[in-house]
Amino acid sequence: MKVIYTDSLVIGGGLAGLRVAIASMQRGYDTIVLSLIPAKRSHSAAAQGGMQASLGACIKGDGDDEDVHFGDTVKGSDWGCDQDVARMFVNTAPKAIRQLSAWGVPWSRVRGGDREVIINGEKVTITEKHEAHGLITARDFGGTKKWRTCFTSDGTGHTMLYAMDNKAIQLGIPVHERKEALALIHEDGVCYGAIVRDLITGELIAYVAKATTIATGGYGRLYSVTTNAVISEGIGTAIALETGVATLGNMEAVQFHPTAIVPVGILTTEGCRGDGGLLLDKDGYRFMPDYEPEKKELASRDVVSRRMTEHMRKGKGVPSPYGDHLWLDITLLGRKHIEKNLREVKEICEYFLGIDPVKEYIPVRPTQHYSMGGVRTNATGESPTLKGLFSAGEAACWDMHGFNRLGGNSVAETVVAGMIVGEFVADYCGANPLNVSTGTIAHFLKKEEKKITDLLVRDFGENPFALKAEMQQIMMDKVGIFRNGPDLEKAVEELTVLNQRARHIALRNRISSSNPELVEAIRVPKMIKMAQCVAYGAMLRTESRGAHAREDFPERNDRDWLKRTLATWPDDSSDLPELSYEDLDVMKMEMPPGSRGYGVDNIIVHSDAEKRMAEIEEITKANSSADRFELQQLLNPTPIPEKFKGKNERIGRGYK
Amino acid sequence: MSDQARVLKFQIFRYNPLKKGDKPRMVTYEVAEAPGMTIFIALNEIRETQDPSLQFDFVCRAGICGSCAMVINGQPDLACRTLTANFADGEITLLPLPGFELIGDLSVNTGKFMRAMSERVESWIHDLHADEVNYDALEERMDPDVADEIYELERCVECGACVSACATKRMRPDFLSAVGFMRLARFALDPRDKRTDDEFYEIMGNDDGVFGCMTLLGCEDYCPKDLPHQTQIAYLRRKMALIR
What we know:
The structure holds 2 protein chains of 2 kinds. Chain A is an alpha/beta fold.
C-alpha cells in the first residue's frame, strides 16, 4: 500500500486550489496539490473577461465600494446567496487583486485623460482622472452598477493563473500532475485525504492528510454543449457526494452564458457586451432594449440568456444547420479595440468560424457555462457535515452566487475564497492531529481497487462513452435554460435507468495503466449521480430563481423557497439523492429580498421581508452617527479572518 | 455543405511505453468529415468509436490552455483549433511533440518540462519586500503601456511548439529554449521584478542559455500565439553580451 502523508491536501490546481495551497504553505504546513493536468492548463485560464473588485479607480467606477458590489452580487444571486459569504467576499476582493498585482499580474491600468468608448451603441468620450493614472482600471460587465471588472487586456484568467502558479512554484509547493482523486478517505464524520489514481501508471495511492480541499471546478460537462473545458466534469464534487456524509448545495443552479459560438460552444467573453457589443436578431434588429429597457444587453446572464431564448422562440433566430442562433455584433468597437482587448475572441472567430469579427457578426446562443452548486460549505469553507473537508471556487457551494453568478465574480471568488478558506484550512491543520488507522486507509484503497478490477475483468456490458453521451443529451434537452415539470420528471426517470446501467460498464481496452476508456468508466457513474442531483433538485424546486427558470412556476417564491437545496447520496445502490432544505434567514439579512431591477418582477414575498426591512431602518436610525462600516457590522457581522479585516483604500476617497 | 461527406484519412503514431511488447507504429483511421470539424473532434470520435486506447491531451479545446500541441502533417500546432477542412487532400498525419517525454501515442509530458523551466528561470517576481505589501492600500502604480507590454510577452501558453521546432534543443538537451527566453524577457521588462542584469546573466549567460541559440527561429515560425521570439531573443542576447 503506497501512502503519502501531508498536512494540507488540495485536489485541483486551478486558481482556487493553488491559492489555498499557498495559504497553507505560508502558514508552515506541508502541502500537496493534485491535478489532472499541469496546473497552468486549468480551466481558470479560460476566464477572458475579468475579475470584479471595487477599486473604483476608473472614472466609471467612481463611487464604487464594497457595499455597491455587495448589492449587485446579492441581486445577481436573486437573493439565493449566503449574505455573510457575499460580504466576506466583497470586502476581501480589493485585497486579493492588489496581492495578485504584487505577485505579477499585469493588470490593465488607468490612462489619465480622454478616451473614446462605446456605451449603448454610441461613441462617447470619457475623461479618466489624472490622479488615477497607473492604477488598476476596470470595464463594464452585466448586472453591475459600476465599471468594476478588472482585467488584463483579453487574458485575465491566464495572467492570474500564471502569477498564482508561479507563486506556488516559488514557495516550492509540489503539484502532483496527472493524478485523479477517486474517493475520499473518511471515518466517523472526519475526512482524512483521498484515494488517488496515477493516470499514467494506473497505480493507486492513498494521500493521507489533516485537511482536504476540493477545488476541482464546475460540472459543465454534464451537458453536451458547454463552454467548459473537457475536464470540468465535476468529479471532485462527486467524490464528496459519494461519501454519503458530505452534502452538495443547490445543484440545480446552473448558469447559461448568453454568448457562446455556434455550434461548438466556445465562449466569447461578456467583455464583448461590456465594451459595447450588441445582440441582434435575424433582421439585424437590436432586441434587448425591448425586453430590458434599463440594462439592455447588460442585465445579468440568466436574464439575457432567457430573453435571447424567448426572442428565438418568437421566430426571430437566425436559422442554421445547428438550430437557431442570434448575432453578437462587435464590429462597432473597431479593429484597434478588438485586436487589443478582445483578441482571444478574434482568434476564436478566425480559427473556429472562419470569420473576422471586426467586419462580421458572430453567431451565438446561450450555452451551459457555470455551476453555482457544489460541495456545500459553511462560511469558513468547511463541509458542515464532514470535518476536515474543505472546498473552494466553482467546486464549492460556499454560496456567494446563489442562483446566478455575475460575470467577473467567478475568478474573483477563486482567489478570494482561496485566501479566506486557505486561512481556515491552515487553522484546521494547526488545531487537529492526524489520527486515522491504516486499516481505514486500506479499506478505502481496496474498495477502489476492486471497482477497477471488476471493470477490467467484465466481458460484456455498457459502453462508457455511450452512457455519457446519453446523459449529456438528457441534461441538454430536459434540464436546460427553461425547465418544466413533465420534462424534469422524464429526465429523472431516464437518469435512473442510466444510473443502473452504469453499474455494468465493460471495457474493450482492458489494461490498468494509462487508459482513457478506464478513466471514462470510472468517471461516468459519478457524473450520472451528479446529473441526477441537478435534475431531481430542479424537479422539486417549484419556483423560478436566478438561472433556475420553471415555465410552470414562473414566480420567485420567497415564501416557500427562500432555501438552499442540500443533496446527499445514501449509498451505492441508490438511484436518487436524498434532498433536504436549509432556510435562508431573512431576519439576519443585510439586504432583505426585493426586486432585482431587471428581468421579470414576479415575486411571492416572504413574511419576514418587511419585518426585517423595518428592523434595519430602526437600527440605522438608532445608530445615526455610525459610519458605513459600523453599520454594516451591526447588520451583518461576518467571520472574516483577522488579517483581511482592514479597510480598503480608494483614490480620492482614502479609507472611507 | 455537400451531401457527400468527405472521408478523412488519419495516420496516427501509436506507442504505449507502459504496455509490454508494444512497438512504435503508424495506424490509419478513417473518419467521415463533419462541417466545422477540428482535430479535437475527430480524435475523440476515433477514441469513442474505433479505438478507446488512443491517448491524447485536450483541456480547453479553444486554443487557450496549450495542452494539445502535436505535429500535424509535419508542423507543430494546436490540434484543438486546427480545422480538418484546412487539408485539401483529407490526409492528416499526427505525431507526438518531439523534445518531450512520451506518455503514450500523442500525449507528451510538457508539464514536467515547463515546471523545471519555471524553476530554472525563477519565474516569479523577485522583490524582498513583496510579502510586506499592505494590500489595503492603493496598489503600486504602473505605466499603462508597460502593463500592456508585459502582457504581450506573457501570452505564452507553454504549449511546447517552440521547443519541438528548435534545432538547438535537438543538439543541446539542456537548452533553455524560446519558452524560457520569453519568460525571462517578460520578467526583465517588469519593474516589479528587482533582479539585476547580472542575476539574469547567471541564469542564461551561457551556451545552454541565450548564447547557444543558432537563430534558426523555428520558435518564431511555429508559435501558435505569434509571440515575438526573434526580437526578444535578440534583445536578451545583446543585453547579456553587454554585461561581461
